[in-house]
Amino acid sequence: MDLEITLIFSILLVIFTLVLTIRVIDLRESPVTRSFHSANRKINPLMLQRAIRAHGNLLEYAPLFLILLFLCEFNQLNEFYLVMSATLFFIGRLMHGIGYGFMLHSPIMRIGGMSLTILGFLLLLISASIKLFAS
After folding, report:
1. What's the sign of the alpha-carbon dihedral 65, 71, 74, 75?
2. pLDDT of 78-104, one tens digit each?
3. Which of 65, 62, 50 lies closest to 105, judged by CA?
4. I want to staple 9 with a disulfide (CB 3.0 to 4.6 A). Which of 18, 20, 57, 86 is the partner?
């Protein structure tokens, strides 16, 4: 058992986590990233707060999803449902992270992102429940 689905989506989520991490570091005016911007750059405090929350929000949801994905894949649930739920979850996290962490106002990205996140979770939960109770 290779657990390739969990591995692939773990990699994708870690890459996006690093993108959001770098965004927060940059908005906190790190000396490392300061040299990439003009000297008179102004940081919007609300944008910094939103970037921090987008990063934190991903870190709140991703571990739970990956644990459940791992358990489902380990128990050999249907790969189609695993990939579908993980794809929905990942797209949802991308939409929410970009819409909330990089934009000041984007309700479509934020609400759509959370909707896809929840849909990904639900699909995985339903698949796991059917496997558990059908046995």
Report:
1. negative
2. 999 999 999 999 999 999 999 999 999
3. 50
4. 86
In sign, the C-alpha dihedral spanning 82, 62, 8, 102 is positive
Residue 16: which CATH number? 1.20.120.550
- Structurally, the chain folds into a number of domains equal to 1
**Predicted TM-score (pTM) of this structure:** 0.91
Tell me the two tokens of residue 107: 């309700």
- 8 Å CB contact between 85 and 4: no
H or E stretch at 57? helix 45-74
Which DSSP string corresponds to 70-87? HHHHHTT--HHHHHHHHH
Q: Which residue has 């934009």 as its token pair?
A: 103
pLDDT band with cut points at 50, 70 and 90 for residue 44? confident
The parent domain of residue 91 ranges over 4-134
Compute the distance between CA of residue 17 and CA of residue 9 in angstroms, rounded to an integer. Answer: 12
Is the pLDDT at 35 greater than 70? The verdict is no
Q: How far is CA 57 from the centre of its chain?
A: 8
CA–CA dist 105, 103 (Å, integer): 6
